[in-house]
Design goal:
By secondary structure, this protein is an all-alpha fold. About 70% of the residues lie in helices and about 0% in strands.
């Protein structure tokens, strides 16, 4: 099983990018991660059938059943066509085999350490690629939107690297890496976010830094650790506007962006976006997409609460797997943010389930953070990861981003399984 995890990471972070660069855009590559998920899923089912054990907390079982009922109500109530249902299952549940893998199969600390090193290598790979893209490949373009490393977009690159920094801080606070190593790796992870014009970095990075530091620093070592983390953190945050101004001198700097009405215009077009009703989806900004998703479904109580059904709105890799609302969903910018996407497909009640899942994951990390084993190391940084990705839901449609969801689900499942084991040991 551990080799399938490596194969998944290579496929998600390198495979598709590499094939595109050599001019091979094969549709099969887009579903290769799902094919790996199916193999893992079959293995998980067979392993469970043989050994009849699962490291799952009752509260998670209750959550899964409740969410499955919610989705079923949305599908039945909207009479979603079978192929669209399959498309929805692909979007929402393709990550589950990797989530359940640590609950069924015993992932050792040694195996998980190897997977973490692989993810760190993927993250560090983004630095030279980002430099090449900024100063060679897209040298004459006055925007950082194309600086995405091997990932699908610049914002996703930023989210991935900021989450990696959060986990790195957890390892440093637990004294598993030296100060010099921490600073060097943190700089290499930070720099791509500073040159790809992702303004959200200045919001996301403080949460990635603060959450592990607040919950992980003991009183007796607080001054020493903060003395190392705080200066490095302040340096990264302060240097971001400087890098932005140097790289994109012809554009408004990031401080002016956040202190003027420019940020409002960037997020919300308002009345200017109304032309989208008969015009182009590109006129819709992030806040507009959420407002339109709500307004379009507010006239039907069932759709507002349960959505139009998974797969019945989102864009699929084939038109045959798209639903009745895909046209409106695209035209009104439903794919721009996770909030808009969820309002369309699982409704307002569905968003509460998403919040519930993030809360469960956060509680697992909170309970495990004091342990000195690998799960304790991951948990401390995972407090920052959960918050960063939760903030990212109104920013990006995360459910469609393999680069974020696969590692998030896999490691969250690992922590949920370790929390179950810790609870069992406490009761013995």
């Amino acid at each position: 099983m551990k080799y399938l995890v490596y194969l998944l990471f290579i496929t998600v972070y390198i495979g598709e990018f590499a094939f595109k660069k050599i001019g091979l855009e094969i549709k099969l590559l887009s579903i290769l991660p799902e094919m790996i998920s199916i193999m893992v899923g079959v293995g998980v089912v067979l392993y469970f059938a043989l050994y009849r054990k699962i490291k799952m907390q009752p509260r998670y079982l209750f959550f899964y059943v409740a969410f499955a009922v919610h989705i079923s109500i949305g599908l039945i109530g909207n009479h979603v066509q079978p192929l669209a249902v399959l498309g929805g299952i692909r979007t929402y549940f393709k990550f589950l085999p990797f989530y359940f893998l640590p609950m069924i199969y015993d992932i050792s600390d040694k195996e998980m350490r190897g997977h973490l090193i692989a993810l760190l290598c993927m993250a560090l790979l983004q630095f030279p690629l980002a430099l090449y893209q900024r100063f060679v490949e897209y040298k004459g373009i006055a925007t950082g939107d194309y600086i995405a490393g091997t990932l699908t977009s610049a914002p996703i690159l930023t989210l991935f690297l900021v989450c990696t920094i959060a986990v790195l801080i957890g390892f440093y606070l637990k004294k598993r890496i030296s100060t010099k190593t921490f600073i060097l790796i943190a700089i290499l992870l930070f720099l791509p976010t500073a040159i790809n014009e992702t303004k959200s970095t200045i919001i996301l990075l403080p949460f990635a830094i603060m959450m592990p530091t607040i919950f992980g620093v003991r009183r007796e070592s607080r001054i020493k650790i903060i003395a190392a983390v705080l200066p490095a953190s302040i340096l990264m945050i302060i240097s971001f506007p400087y890098f932005y101004k140097v790289m994109y001198s012809g554009r408004m700097d990031v401080v002016q962006f956040y202190t003027t009405e420019k940020v409002i215009d960037y997020l919300y077009k308002g009345k200017e976006a109304e032309q989208v009703m008969g015009g182009s989806e590109t006129e819709v900004h992030r806040v507009d997409s959420i407002i339109y998703a709500y307004e379009k479904n507010a006239d039907d109580f069932f759709r507002l609460v349960w959505g139009v059904g998974i797969g019945n709105a989102a864009v699929s890799f084939s038109k045959k797997f798209q639903g009745d609302y895909t046209g409106e969903y695209v035209r009104l910018g439903g794919q721009k943010t996770g909030v808009a996407h969820f309002i369309w497909e699982i409704g307002l009640l569905g968003i509460l389930y998403i919040v519930w899942f993030f809360l469960l994951t956060f509680m697992d990390a909170l309970k495990l953070r004091k342990q000195n084993n690998l799960s304790g190391l991951i948990s401390l940084g995972w407090l920052g990861v959960v918050i960063v990705l939760f903030i990212g839901i109104p920013y990006q449609n995360l459910i469609t981003k393999n680069e974020l969801m696969y590692p998030f689900c896999y490691l969250s499942g690992f922590l949920a399984a370790r929390h179950y084991v810790a609870q069992r040991e406490e009761t013995l």
